[in-house]
Amino acid sequence: MVHGITALVAQPDLGFRRQVDDELGAFLDSRRDRWIESGTRPCFSVLRSYVLSPGKRLRPTFCYWGWRGAGGEPGPQIIRAAASIELFHSFCLIHDDIMDTSDMRRGQPALHRQFADIHARSGWRGDATRFGVNAAIVAGDLLAMWSDEMLQTCGLDPAGLRAAYPYVARMRADVCVGQFLDAEEQAHGGSLSGAVLVARYKTAGYTVQGPLQIGAALAGAPQAVLTALGAIGRPLGEAFQFRDDLLGAFGDPKVTGKSDMDDFREGKPTALVALARDGATAHQARQISALHGNPRLTVEGAALLRRIIVETGARKALEAMIDERVEQARQALAAAPLSDPAVRGELELLLTSTAHRES
Amino acid sequence: MVHGITALVAQPDLGFRRQVDDELGAFLDSRRDRWIESGTRPCFSVLRSYVLSPGKRLRPTFCYWGWRGAGGEPGPQIIRAAASIELFHSFCLIHDDIMDTSDMRRGQPALHRQFADIHARSGWRGDATRFGVNAAIVAGDLLAMWSDEMLQTCGLDPAGLRAAYPYVARMRADVCVGQFLDAEEQAHGGSLSGAVLVARYKTAGYTVQGPLQIGAALAGAPQAVLTALGAIGRPLGEAFQFRDDLLGAFGDPKVTGKSDMDDFREGKPTALVALARDGATAHQARQISALHGNPRLTVEGAALLRRIIVETGARKALEAMIDERVEQARQALAAAPLSDPAVRGELELLLTSTAHRES
C-alpha cells in the first residue's frame, strides 16, 4: 500500500502519448480550412496549441488499456478513438476554467485568457475579457463536436462504435450533470456527500470509468469485463478527484501547472474543505468561513487555511478516502476477468500513478 | 413573388409540433433521474420548460420534410430524430444568449436569467448572475450531448444514421465556427462579406440546409437529392438570418419574443448595419458609430438608428438580398428530383413562411 503523493509516479509512455498527439494534430489540421475561411488564424493556432499542451493524456491511456483488456489489438484506429476523449477533456477544461474564473491551466494562461490576450494585442473593438470568455465558450463547444466526429470517423468497426455508444453518452452527460451539481453545491455551501457525488459525476465518469469501458466496448467486450472495468474505474476516478483537491490545496503550482490559491478563492466545494468543516472547532469553522471563498484571500490567509485543514485531520482523512478507493479498485482489478497479464500489469501501474500523482 | 414580412405565414402544423414536443418531453423525462440524483429539481424544471417553450420547431420540420422528400415514411423514429435537432437548437440559443448578454428569448427571460432568478429567490451563496451564467453554460453543454443521444437512439436503421453522420457533424461544427466568426466580426467592426459568412455558417447550416440533408440522408437519399436540398437550404438559411436581422431591428417584441434593442446595444455585426454603413453619408456614419454598440442606447437613439437604416437604403437592400435568395431556393426546389408532389408543396410553403415570417 502506497501512502503520500510523492511515493510513486509511473513512467509515462512517451510513445503512446506521441501517437495520441499526432492523431490530435492531424485531426485538428484536417478541420483548419473550414475554421479559417475568415480571419481566425491566430485563434485557431492558440486552440491547437492548447489541445496539444503537455498533459498526462490519462483518458486516452485508460481507453487504450480498456481496449487491450478486452483483447483489442494495437492500431491507429484505437489511438484515434482514444485521442477523441482528449478533445472532450479539453472541452471540459475550457468550460470549467471559464466557470471557475481560473486564469491558469497546465502552466499557461487558461484559454479564455489567451483569447483575451489576442484581442488586446490586436487592438480589436470591445471588451477583451468578454471576447476571451465568449470565444472560449464557443471553442469548447467546437471541441465537444469535434470529439464526437473524431470518434465516429476513427475507422473502427461500426458494431464496436454502436456497442460503445451507451458508455460514450453516459460519460458525456455525467460530466455535465456533475458540473451542474458542482455549481449548485457551491451555491448551497458544500457538504461531504455533495462533494463525493460531484467527484463521481464530474470526474470519475469521464476520467477513468468511461474511457476504460468505452475502450473495452469498442473491442466488443462481454458484459462481465465492462462491469469489472466499471468497478475499477469508479473508485479510482473518485480517488483521482480527491487527489486533485489535495493538489489544488497543497500541490506545487510549478508542478501542477495550476494555482494553489484558485480553489480556495473560488470557494470550490471540495471534499477536503467539507471534511475540515466537519472536524473544525467553532473558532476554526469561523476562520474557514472567512477564508474559503474569499476572492481577496492572501498568501497568509491561504497558509492559515491549509494549517486548519491539516489540524482538523481533513488532509489525513482525505488521504484515507483515497487509499480506501484505490484498494477497492485494486481488488476489483484482481478479480477482473482479464486474460492478458501484460494488460493487468499496465492497469496496476496506472492505478498507482493515478492515485499518487503530483500533477 | 412575395414582398414584405407580413405577406404570408404558413399555417403551423400543430399535429407535427405536438409530436415533436411529446418526444422532447419524453426524452428529457427519461433523463431526469440521473440529473436530479442531487437537489437540482428546480433547475431541471426550468430547463425542460425552456426547451418546450413555444417556438416554430422549424429545424425538426425541415428535417422531417427532408426525410419525406427522400421517400421516408411517417413514423415516431423520424420525429425523434427531427426533435433531436431542436435540442441542438436550444443549446445554440442558450450559449448565444450568454455571449450576447441577451435577457429575453421567446418572450421569457433567457435561461441564464431564469437560473439567476432561482439562485436569488432561494437565497443561495455567491453571486446570482454568475451562477445563472455558469449553470446555463453547463445546461447548454448537456443539451448538446443529449441531442446526440436522442438522435443515436431514435430507433432508425444504423445505416441511415451512418449516412446522415457527415451532415450532422458538419452542421454542428459549422454553427460553432459561425459563432466564432460572429465574435471576431464584432471585434473587427463588421463588414457585409463578414456578415454573409456568419449567416452561412452560424445559421443557414443548422436552420435549413443541415436539417433538410440530415432528414434525407437518414432515409437513404441518393447524392442528387442531397445536393438539391443543399442548393435549397443554403440560400434559404441565409435569407432566414437576414430576416432575423430585420426582425431584430424592426420587429415587434411582442411578436418576436425578443428585444428590438439588444442587437443595436450589443453592436451585433449584422448585414443590415453593414449595408447602412456602406450607404451612409459621413454624418450618418458618425451617427451609426455612436449609436450601434452603445450599451446605453435610448429608445430615441434606436429610433434614429432605424431611420438611418431606412434612409441609407439598407433595409430595402436587405429585403432585396432576401428575395434574391428565396428566388434561388425556389428555383433549386423546382429543379430538385423530388418525386412526391405533396412534399414539393410543403417545401414551397415552408420556403415562403421561413423567409417572410414575423417572429
Which characteristics define this entry?
homodimer, 359 residues, mainly alpha, Farnesyl Diphosphate Synthase, two-stranded antiparallel sheet, 2 strands, 75% helix, disordered N terminus, magnesium (chains A, B), Polyprenyl_synt (chains A, B)
Report on this structure.
2 copies of one chain form a homodimer. Chain A is an all-alpha fold. Chain A has one domain (14-355): Farnesyl Diphosphate Synthase (Orthogonal Bundle), CATH 1.10.600. Chain A contains 16 helices and 2 strands. The longest helix of chain A is centred in the middle third of the chain and has 31 residues, at 158-188. Residues 1-12 of chain A have low confidence and may be disordered. The interface between A and B is large, with 56 and 57 residues.
Supply the CATH superfamily name of chain A: Farnesyl Diphosphate Synthase
Number of helices of chain A: 16
CATH class of chain A: Mainly Alpha
Please give the domain count of chain A.
1
CATH architecture annotation name of chain A: Orthogonal Bundle
Distance between the termini of chain A: 20 Å
Question: Low-confidence spans of chain A: pLDDT under 50, at least 5 residues?
Answer: 1-12
List the helices and strands of chain A in order: HHHHEEHHHHHHHHHHHH
Report a brief summary of the structure.
Chains A, B: Its cofactor is Mg(2+). The first copy, chain A, is mainly alpha-helical.
Give the SSE map.
Two copies of one chain form a homodimer.
Chain A: H1 14-35, H2 41-51, H3 58-69, H4 76-99, E1 104-105, E2 108-109, H5 111-122, H6 128-152, H7 158-188, H8 192-218, H9 223-250, H10 253-256, H11 262-266, H12 271-278, H13 282-291, H14 299-311, H15 314-335, H16 341-355
Antiparallel strand pairs in A: 1-2
Helix pairs in contact in A: 1-2, 1-4, 2-5, 3-4, 3-8, 3-16, 4-6, 4-8, 5-6, 7-8, 8-9, 8-12, 9-15, 12-14, 12-15, 13-14, 15-16
Pfam families (chains A, B): polyprenyl_synt
Protein name (chains A, B): Polyprenyl synthetase family protein
Keywords (chains A, B): Magnesium, Metal-binding, Transferase
